[in-house]
What does this fold into?
Amino acid sequence: MENISKGSIERISEDGIDVIIVKENTRKEISLNSVLDENRKFGDSIRKAAGSLKELDAEILSLNIFGNVGSFRDCSRTIGEYFKESNFPVTYIDGMNCFTGGIAGYNIQAISGIKLTDIIIDNKVAGCSYSDNYANYCILGNIQTNDTDKPRDQQTLHTLSAIEKALKKAGMNMTDLIRTWFYNDKILEWYDDFNYVRTRYYGDRDIFKKLLPASTGIGGSNPADAALVAGAVAIKKKSDEIEFEMLPSPLQCKAYDYGSSFSRAVEVKLKDHRKIFVSGTASIDPDGATAHVGDIGSQIELTLKVVDAILQSRGADMSMTSRANAYFRNTGDAKLLIKYINDYDLPLNTVIISKNDVCRDDLLFEIELDAVLLNK
It folds into this structure.
């Protein structure tokens, strides 16, 4: 067992499960990541995760699983077995393990020491909200339309509307978004159309005049056969002791310059620590063009340099990562990432590696991550 403590941040890593615990007064925010392989099965891992969260007296905010859609029912039964009394959104994305072909892993966000309020949309749990002295918070997952026979642009509109509806139940608006995830089935066929709908929706709600959220848009089908599934984090300030800031990328242009409506990263500064949400990042040059076409090694290297530069600009580094997802178009390329993970001190048990299309057909790799660090 590895146990590293520094102030109010603790990391516990054991047998493929990585847990980051951020402590503030009586509250604990937990990010639990599990990387699966031939020796670490989903059922065993979920059982261990349930035990860890029980010890922390924590409630799950959201659970994201990356694996073959065909395994969804078995995963659902396993989750129900170990979390019988829990009520939280489960987002299941088709993103198989690049090394074994099975389930790649899962991310759990959880919290203890605070009261949660469930958010129900269309008779199912969409997430929850909670409050402290500084802000109101809302965590959403598995957001999708029920009208899966509709065209993709209409499904996108319905999904964004569902996010807005959920936020209103939490007393928030779309301008309170700080982080979003969009998992688009067959993303290469319609990413431009998706961006068009999102940009118009954001514009109609004045998001561009306030804070443009960090985001990930990645390819992956889902058990409901929806065109896309979404997740989100929103925070509404109650005090000047919490601050938000869109972070530029020192090595890239703004994503909006080539039609994608998200910021490169968003930093949330709380009383004693900071969180950095780094958007899905790929091998894109300062002019917005794909760099190193056909060269997976160089794409990985540039991508990690870009992410590292964002973190370094805020006094952070990859060793402070609390959650990471790496996406490869080709499974055989994934082994190349291990060297770079070690070079950048990225905690290995934090990185879930899965097969998913990136938003351009010449992009072979993408990574997203969250980092947490104490204020100086």
